[in-house]
Amino acid sequence: MIxxxxxxxxxxxxxxxxxFSIGLIAAIIGVMFGAAGFVLLPSMLxxxxxxxxxxxxxxxxxxxxxxxxxxxxxxxxxxxxxxMIPLMFFSVLGGVTGAFLATRLAEKTMNxxxxxxxxxxxxxxxxxxxxxxNLEVGKSEEKTTPIIPFFISIYDGGFGPGSGLMNxxxxxxxxxxxxxxxxxxxxxxxxxxxxxxxxxxxxxIVIWKIAIPVTIGSIFGSFIGLKIIPYIKGRWIQVLLPAIxxxxxxxxxxxxxx
Length: 258
Fold this sequence. Notes:
Radius of gyration: 17 Å
Number of strands: 0
Helix content: over 70%
Largest sheet: none
Distance between the termini: 44 Å
Order of helices and strands: HHHHHHHHHHH
Structural class: mainly alpha
Shape: globular
Number of domains: 1
């Protein structure tokens, strides 16, 4: 009971409200553009949370908020979970693999790898930019394979920023409309975050007094983001997705240099 009182007093403090707001804003951006880590991870580092603990909090908050979306998809029968099982399995495996590798790498090494991956993703996105202009048009969805989501999930489990955007881009290249690409990306994000967080939890680096308020904010933010998605226009995405990914690269490069 004493522990619960301590937690509640911390959640309703200035720091708790700040963490809630960070989770809220990160989830809105994460659902719409797949870049929650652009807000969440730097914010955690800014308030002094160690890099590996920041990633663990990120995985917990992102995973729970994505799970709340997945439950909504199932209840409303928007997606076929049966169809997603192979992708989910490999995403869980990728998340665990990424977390395992991250705990054995120094922060600078993690940032260097993240920088290379984000630069590759940026050029892939630019090459696919014409696809983003027709988001409202129905398309013939191509068959997906778990290979690309698996490697994205390794990155997500070990670092994270931009992984949702990579998943969205993958589904867009497979001719999914934007809303459906976001829905499938949320399922993959839940799977990779679940795998990664499980590893971080048993590794003992989760800071619960930070994770809980961030996660509560993320749950609210994820639902707000889903409500906004139907109003997003293709031409906005053509500009915003590359811009967000470019800012992620700038952020990681600045972490390497300074």
